[in-house]
Design goal:
single chain, about 220 residues, two-stranded antiparallel ribbon
Amino acid sequence: MEYLVRRARVTPEFKGDWDGPAWRDAAIASITHFHAQSSSHRPTAEAKLLYDDFGMYVHFRVRDRYVVCRHTQPQSPVCRDSCVEAFLQPKPDAGYFNFEVNCGGAILLYYITESTRIDGKIQGFRPVETKLLQMIRIFHSMPCEVTPEMESPTEWSVEYFVPNELFEAHVGELEPPQNRRWRGNFYKCADDSSHPHWASWSPIGAALNFHVPAHFASIRFES
């Protein structure tokens, strides 16, 4: 499978407008592969990506229930909340980034060079430094905190921009779009909701582990 990142013809406005001028022609990655350990709740989650000369834009839309958001600080364990994730590996011989953003807009972001786990802990990672993290612009349609859990059907979105500078600080200069050979995956999770679930765009296999680059799929850029 492959995802095509189209060039942005219009700069996204960060309003969560899924079908607006910037996003209407972006390809959709449907997050439909639910892990066997998931509860019966099956939210509809989709992702779109765009790029321009300055960086990458990411947009998630989720039709959900049992929405919860307790973590409000950067680099907190947002995967425990209603959360969407984009794992992006810009170069095959380098590490990958785990962009994890909960429905309230809090982000956790590491640069991971060795995803092997020992005693449950990933071995090779470092948090993206604060000055780079602060360059990410994030829109979120839900409040920063959602407690108690919202059981009723709810649609929410997260939209963010990542500057090239953040990627290049870790992997070096990015190639021209036509030469980029990225890999990655997109996820929806909610570890600590009343109906926990784990879903992916590219299947992750039998183990409940998003951090397996072998399960990433191709991400190609429109030239």
